[in-house]
Every structure is written in structure tokens, then in C-alpha cells.
Amino acid sequence: MSWTDERIDTLKTMWEGGQTASQIAEALGGVSRNAVIGKAHRLGLQSRPSPVKPNEPAAPAPVAAPAPVPAAPEPEPLVAAPPPPPAPPRAAAPVIEEEDDEDEDDEVVAAPAPVREPQPILRSVGPGGFVRQSPGEQQPPATPAPPRRLVPAKPSPEIAGKTTLLDLNDRICKWPLGHPGEPDFHFCGEKVNPGFPYCVAHCGHAYQAQLPRRDRRPPPPLPFGGPRVR
DNA sequence: CCCTGATTCGC
DNA sequence: GCGAATCAGG
């Protein structure tokens, strides 16, 4: 990944908006926290209350004086709807993200976490084309009116015979094929390489020796069938 | 441990 | 210019 104007812009906006380097890195995708910090400095964005460095006086302690909070937490729209000013969310499909995949999970089960998103909320789109959600912006699961009776969901025909999420266990390869949300999204399902979450073949893709940079070869194939093409 | 940003330095 | 490694504080 390179620093395109667009990405630099996102970096600036988020950095100035008070997002942490980690958050920015994740939003941008394909870069590390360090990369973000390094770039921020090179851009002259420097400074910003560092937990390590002593800070200028002047500003009254932000911690002791929390801003008045509205009685009820305002429900945040699922899709970023930042007030007029700041940059719009980056809705564009990801462009060939390199490495970095990390665990894209956790997002569903997140507990009530302290909201720490001050300003504009920029989000990225995950490898599967889904919109990422920060832990702080969970929508309490709406409790829909219970249906009159529950009918067992029948698997779509496309998925017949495929390894679905529900079929996963410790012994079968969890390498995803296709894109989450699509009707035929499924998992490899081969017998795993013992001790690994993937079969032998997919382990070959997932784990690669860390070579000196100079000697690194091709961009590793991505899980999720690669970036979505629209 | 986790997190944070700052800095260094080989590439 | 880039970012991993490292440092140092919370």
C-alpha cells in the first residue's frame, strides 16, 4: 500500500480528529500503527497529547471535566453520517490490500465499551466488502417483534454441500472462499494440517517465512477470494 | 500484560 | 520517503 492523496487525507482528518494511530491504521488498512505515526510526523502533523511526552499546560484537564452528556445516548446510524463538515466515509472498495488481515472478528460480541470516538468517524471496508464497525459504535441489537412462529432457515441451494460457518470445527480447514454475505460463501472444509486452522495447502498460503525484505517475493494470495470487484 | 505516541535507522 | 524496531509513559 502506498500513500495516495486520498489516504493521506484520511490520515490527516482522523489524526486531527483525535483518532489514535491504531484506529487510523485499521481504517486505512494495509498499514501498521507505526506507519501511520511515521507518516503523520513526516507530514508535520506532529504533536498531539502523547501519553509519553510531557504536555503543554494551558488546556484544562480534559479528564476531570467531561463534557456535558445528553441524557440518552444518541443512536448512531449504522452507516457513518458525519455532520456536514468532515470528510465522508471511505466507501470505496478496497484496492488490493496487502498482507495484514488480522482477526476481523470480535465485532459482533463486543461488550459495552467506553465510546472514545470524538470526531468524524471514518470507516473502511473489510476484505469481504462489509463495513467495519468500531467497538465503540455498537448498535444495540434491535429486538424485532417475534415472528408468529419460527421456521428453520433452509440453506440456500448455492450452499448445499459446502462448508458453512456452522460446519466449522477444529478439524476442518477454515480458509474462506468467496465473500462473506454472498450466497455461496463457504469454507474450504478440507481436513486441517494438525495444529493449524487450515489444510496443508492453505497453510502454505497463510504462513510464509519472513525473509529479508529484499528477498521477499510475490504478494501473498488473500483470503476471502481477494478484493471484491464491483 | 495491554495500550499510547516518539524516535531511530536500514532500506 | 517508508515503516519495523525500539523506547518510554499510562
From TrEMBL:
Residues 41-157, 210-230 are annotated as: Disordered. Residues 109-118 have a biased composition (Low complexity). Residues 96-108 have a biased composition (Acidic residues). This is GcrA family cell cycle regulator. Residues 51-91 have a biased composition (Pro residues).
